[in-house]
Amino acid sequence: MNTTMITRRRLLYGLGATLGTAAFNSLLADDAVRAAKPQPGGGPLAPKSGHHAAKARSCIFLYMEGGPSHIDTFDPKPTLQRMHMKEFERQDKFASAMASGKRYYVQSPFTFRQVGQAGLPMCEHYQHLAEVADELCFYRGLQAESIDHPTACYHMNTGNRFAGDPAVGAWVTYGLGSENQNLPAFVVLPEASYPQGGSANWSNGYLPAYYQGTTLRSHGSPILDLAPPRHVTRDVQRANLDLLAAFNAADRSRHPHHAELAARMESYELAFRMQSEVPDVVDLKKEDAKTLERYGLNDPTTAEFGRRCLLARRLIEAGVRFVQVYASGWDSHDYLAVSHKARIRTVDKPIAALIADLKQRGLLEETLVVCGGEFGRSPDNGVRGGGATIGRDHNAKAMTVWLAGGGVKRGTIVGATDELGASAVEVVNPIANLHVTLLHLLGLSDDKLRFFHEGRFKQISQTGGRVIKELLA
Questions:
Q1: Residues 173 and 273 in one domain
Q2: Is the pLDDT of residue 243 over 80?
Q3: Domain range enclosing 269
Q4: Strand 136-143 relative to strand 399-404: parallel, antiparallel, unpaired?
Q5: Strand, coil or helix: what is 238?
């Protein structure tokens, strides 16, 4: 036997302990650096072709932060009416860390009715959303992995329970670029206070900085210092930027692996271009009075969220690729009847107006709308104050997310939870598969949309996932 013969396995193993691996990793890292540089014929956010034919060209993600109760919105559980206030001890690992002592089943304080031609069940307080029910697809089979708000928010927004990974919007703009080079490709419309976990929910993570979400303020000017000082003309600005670009280009030629510098240069240029286009896009006075009323801008209850929904439509219409709109306050451990009713009233009219407006303008078929939070709620809770403060705890095993437009089924329910709403039991999928499905509808393949980082190629699903075909039209 020839003991000097080297098998393929031994060769590959040997490469792992030599300079071969370092050289190979260097080549892969160069690919990542090239992806971070402006491409010939356009910047890093220039429109790109997807991996396959897309159903949608853009996405609006309505994020209900705090964990809306599926049991009290779109997934009624009559069994809980028979079991209301019956005691039991919850043993499973998904029970809230705050739960202690006696536990009781809790029925929904709301009534449900069937809406739309498909007869979808919907909470009584969704008066306006019921009018567009036939455009919606309720998905009841989704499961999260965390019952802690920050980690659950990170998971839903980035695919990882820990901060530092790119947000869904960052991945989409990395894969597709933007249709408007004068506006950010990924825009976030938060409330005055950021969601739990903060801006890491829309971070570019390890992707180049071009792809991070750009926040627009909820009050006053959407972007501070958008307009230059009166004594600074656009010609002066242009000359200053050209001089700065020359200095930066010289530095970048000496340090080609510093992608942050290229991103900073591009951000200066984008800010310069935004000065001419952003004021027009965010000027809601250009909308007629009927549209403003339809979004609820004349009602203090709905005005704030309605403004963000209308702005989301205007941004998508202007070519922005991904817009995320936040609405907090859904963490109803106590006073469920009061708190959820108030939150529904805040978002009901604006969301219905957004769906109807997109459809009327011919944009709904090419715009994927997603609405959901970080997890669902439990069918039980501890009861304090003689039952006056009934609420629900966190539940990662069952939640409802609805989708509309962009190639999803219309007027239907996909998946199911058990008779108590405690766990998904049909068409069950992790959040990773929802992300893979969103990418698929936008023309991107999770297995191809990767970025080399820390010695390996990474993707939003972490280790791969599958498209939830039951959601597709």
A1: no
A2: no
A3: 226-281
A4: antiparallel
A5: helix
